[in-house]
Amino acid sequence: MSDGYLQDHLIEHLMDAGRTAEAEAVASDLRWVQTRLHQRGPTAPWRDLDGIASPTARALAADIARAAHLLSPTNPPHALDAILSSRLTALSHWDDQPHPMVHHHLTNRWPPPDLPNRSLLRALTGSTAAVQALAFSPDGTLLATAGDDQCVRLWNPATGACQRTLVGHEGRIRAVAFSPDGTLLATADDDRRTRVWDPATGVCLSIVHGRIPRAVAFSPDGMVLADVAGDGCIWGRDPATGTVLRRLTGPIGGVKAVAFSPDGSLLATAGEDGWARIWNAATGTLRHSLTDHISGSGAVAFSPDGRMLATGGEDRRVRLWNTATGAALQTLSGHEGYVNATMFSPDGTLLATAGYDRSVRLWDPVTGTALRTLSGHEGYVNTLAFSPDGTLLAIAGHDRAVRLRNPATGTISDEGTGVRELAVAAGSQLVTADDDGRVRIRDAMTGTISHVLTDYARGVRTVAFSPDGTSLATVGEDGQMWVWDPSTAIPAPAFGTESIRGIRSAAYNSDGTVLATADAHRTLHLRDPATGAVWRTFTTGNRASHTLAFSPDGRLLAAVGHDDAVWLWNIETGNVQHTLTHDSAQSLQAVAFRADGEMLATADERGAVFLWNPTTGTLRGVLTGHEGPVGALAFGGPWLATAGDDATLRIWDPDAGTVLTLMRTDSPLRCCNWSLDGRVLYAGGRRGLFAYDYHRNTGNSP
Question: What pTM did the predictor assign?
C-alpha cells in the first residue's frame, strides 16, 4: 500500500488478533526497524515495540529511543541504515540479526565507545546553541527548554517530539518556569524582558521590561512570579499583569538563583557573594544568611518537605542547610568544577547536582552519600530537573542536547578516555594520544593495548609513525618530542634534550628517511630519524604550524597553522612552491595528500574541505556538509575521510564531490585515519576510539 497503511497498522492489528509473539517478532526485526525508520522516522519503530506488553519488547524500544537523536535523515539516505546498525548491533538481541546493505557503508569493528548506559532513556536534539534552563510542566506531559539560541522549545518527553517552538526573545534565555497549574510559562532573557506564555497555544500573554533577569520562579499558589535582576533586585510580580507586588530589601548581592519553599512561606536566593539567603516570602524580610561557599553561590533548591535547602557554588561543593534554624547539615564534595544546578527528587530521597565537570551526581540527602555519577555530556551541565513523578531526570548544557535519564538506574559512569590524535603503521599497529596524557600502542585489528607511554604530564599533541612501524614520534603539550621503538616502548637515544624542545608537530615522509618537525617559532626542521640531526631548516609564515604532511613521493611538505594558508615546500630546493589560500577558508585545521599525489585536502573551522592541485596550486573544489569545524581528514586510496565537531565521520568521492556514506557518533570527533589497506577507518574523540570496517558498493548504485 503506497500510503503506508500496512506499515503503520500491522503491529496493532497483530496485537488485536492476539498474535503478540508474531507482533514482537516483526517489530524487533532489524529489517522492519529500517523500513519504519525511513518511512516515518525513529518514533515509528519505537512505538511499534513500546506498544507490546513484554519486557523484551520494552527493552528493545528503549534501545531505539536511546539512539533516536542520531537517526534523523541522512545524505546519502542509505547511510542511515549503517548508523542504525552501528548503534544497535553492539547490543544483545540485535547483534545476531542480518543487516544486508549494498551501498558504501561502515560497520563496527568493535562497539562504539560512546554507547550510553541504561540510565539514558532519550536525547532531545534541535537546540542550535547551549541550553541554559529547563522545566517540566506540573503534569509531566511537557518539558520546556531554552538557552542561547533565543528559542523556547516544548517537548513531549514520552516520544521526544518537539511540540512547539516559542520565538520572540532577542537575547539569551536564562530561565524558564511553569505555573503550578501548568497554564502559564515564564521565560527570562538577556534583553531585559520576562515573558509569560500560554504553553497550550504558544501565545505570549505579557512582557515585563526591566533589568536583565537571572532567574524566575512561581509561588506554589501561582499568585506571585519572582524574578531576579542582574543587579540583585528581586521582584514579586502579578504573573498576569506584571504589576510589582513587593521588592526584597537587605544585603542581597548579585543574585543568580531563586526558589520558593513548597508551602510558599519562604524564598531562597543564591548570590555571587557566596551567600545563600532565606526570606519570608510574604513580608520580604530576611530570615537567614547562609555562607560557607568560598566564592559565588549559583544554585539553590528546597527539599519537598521544605526542611532542607541545597546550595551549590563556585567552590565545587554542595551544602545542605536546615531551613528553620539556618544550621549547616552536610557538605558534599566530589564535583571537579563549579556547581550550576541542584534539585531534589519529588519524594526527597535523591539530590541531583551538576556543573562544569560535565557530570551529574546523585546523592542521598540524609546521609550525604554519593550514589552514582551520570556522565557522557560533551560540555558544562547548566541545568537539570526531575519530572513530577520522579521517573525522569532531564539534563542539559553546553552540548545543546537535552538528555532524559532514569535516576534509579545506570552505572557509576559511562565516561571513556578521550583520544586526541591517532596514527597507523605497518604490522597492524595503531597508536593513540589520549586525554589522560598517555600514548597507547594498540593492535589495529582488535584495539588491544600492548604498551602505554606515560612521559607527558601535560598531555600529548601529536603522534607519528614511520611507515614501516619501527619508529614512533610523540610530541607533548610541553613541546618535547620523543622517538620510541614501539615494539619495546623504549625511547631512542639519538635525540639530545635540547634539540627536542619547543616542538609542535612532526611527520615522517613516505619511506621513513626524513622526520619533519615544526616549532613554536615558525621554523620547520628536516631531520635524520636515526640520529636526530637537522639537515635543512625552513622559516614559514604560519603561526606555529600544528600539522605537517609529506606528499607520497616525499618531494613536498605541507604545513598548516592557525591561519588561512597552506605552505607547500619543495624539499629538494628548500623553496616555497605554493602558498594555498582561499577567501572563505578560516583557521585551517588539517591537511593530507592523496596517494597519487594529485590532490591535497585541507579543512577549516567552519566545516569546509578544500581540494587543491599541489602541482599547480589551483583549487579543484570545495566539499561542504559538516556543521562545524572539521578537525581531521585522511585519504584511503581514492576516497577521503573527514571527521568533525558535528560528531560525523564522512567518506567522500573527492573527484565527484559527493558523500559516499557517513557515520554519526554521540560525541565530537577530533581525528581519523585509515588502515594501510584502506579497509578500516579509525576515529577518535572525547569518548574514545572508534573503528569501522569500510564496505564498498556491492550493487549497481554509485
Answer: 0.88
